Task: structure prediction
Amino acid sequence: MNNEGSKPLLVDWWNGMSAVLDLSHPNGMKWFKAKLDYLQNKYGVDGLKFDAGDIRFYENGKSYGNISPHQQCQLFNQLAVAYPIAPILVKGAATRKIVLPKGKWEDQNGKIWKGNRTIEYPAKLETIPHFTRLDEQ
Result:
């Protein structure tokens, strides 16, 4: 996002200054997804914390899609839904119930799952099941 002209919108947050990513721009969403996918595929990252999608970060900027701060926040949340994880939370459990949103999903082992349902997923305590959406919603 930018404020006036083409300067990036910078915001002050807990860790200093940060530029605000415009998710209404197709390249912004594509770039962010590529970075997240890279972390999962290259390093085996099995959990992502989606933080800083707060409406207040988008209030003083102009987006590519000319959308509201609320809509920017919705796009951020939609992206987070595309990276669900489901850790085992009960000692001795060998499976976990996982709610897959609508769509087509691939687990970390390459198995394809149809969404819009709850599945019973096999997992060990040391494994955090994660899924990647294969279709666009």
